[in-house]
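pasting for ref. prot 1 ->
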Amino acid sequence: MDLGEFRNLIATVRGEIGKVVQGQDAIIDLVLISIFAGGHCLVEGPPGTAKTLLARSVSAAMALDYRRIQFTPDLMPGDVLGVNLFNFQTNQFHLTKGPVFTDILLADEINRAPPKTQSALLQAMNERMVTLDGTDYSLGSNFFVLATQNPIEQQGTYPLPEAQLDRFLFKLVVDFPDWDTEIAILSRHASQALKSDARNAGIRPLVTSAALAAGRALIDAIHLDETILTYIVDLVRATRSDPDILYGASTRAADALASAVRVRAAFEGRDYGLPDDVQVLLVPALRHRIILSPSAEIDGRTPDEVLRNIKNRVDAPR
């Protein structure tokens, strides 16, 4: 596979997912970038904005294992990771693997589970490995978490700690579709069976494990010029000195942004990154990695607004 073939594959995958998830082309693109970059995605939006449908559609386009966890207040870490159970017939402990042992994991409404259960994913997301009773179990290089959360209803929810937020490559904000898209969605569903599984039926599984590995091999060869790396570092360091930001982005954030830039370049059929790649990915890569100052919050500013101001202030390489 060369870069031209890879670009065509990604365009086809976008089209397949776009048949079901309409009006969210930029979100679909960022989810695919995260998968190929080896990152994870946090999707935030009000109920009924196709967050779960997005995850199911992405998994349908990938010939990979997919499992879903509905996070609830009574969910325990063992329900996510699995447990060692004693078998009285063999007098040995036997591992019962939890749903985390998969390729694509949908962590639905992750902020409804208490911190001890949320933290069960920390090692899995960072190391793609789970340690149970002193034994390490690999989750494989394709392990990808797509977590959703609802920003409106806060009763019975537990905000994700900064350490876990930093494990997500992107935080994607899903909003309601525009009028034309909403009409198109209703028109499409009006011609389908009422079964919920019909809505992502017909998506072809285009990205096999081999195609994913081949795509990542191409991405590994993408070159980032010193000017692009300097630009990324200047942007990230600007978050640490901005008066509107109490805590800025980490070095891990800069490294994650650089990885995402390489993937976006490959998606566009280029073997080099551009300042445009950095600018497109800056806000989704950093919006969850900064903490606004109290004065900025009182003034009603948002992380997106503050990051856009930094982007406009820091000179891009020519």
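and prot 2 ->
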Amino acid sequence: MVLMFLNGGGMRGGPLHEQLQGAPLCCVARSAPKYHYFSVGDRFPAMYEGGSGSVVGEVYDLPLAVLRDHLVPAEPPELELGVVELEDGAACLATVLRPSFADSPGLTDITSVGDWRAYLASR
């Protein structure tokens, strides 16, 4: 089992939520204020360390087999597994933007919003 911080389509009501295979929600949380947060072509969000923004998400207690067999295969190629810091200092797995995509033209900085659902609602 691992703690997984989700901040996009894997959250409740999102198109990837079924990939969690019923894994329990532990809590709604925020990341530490040290990330850039991007919309990638308005398809999904991506965190990238080195900023000053905090990101809203959900923490799930996820079996490694579910991560391996369901969640990771459903993620786009722009994302990879990483470890992020939550607001309370805890470490948590998350999908983050691959460094090779950090300068991509399709990124929209949504750090000031810090919440994928709020961003989508504002478009």
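The chain has a mean pLDDT of 96.
The CA atoms of residues 33 and 53 lie 5 Å apart.
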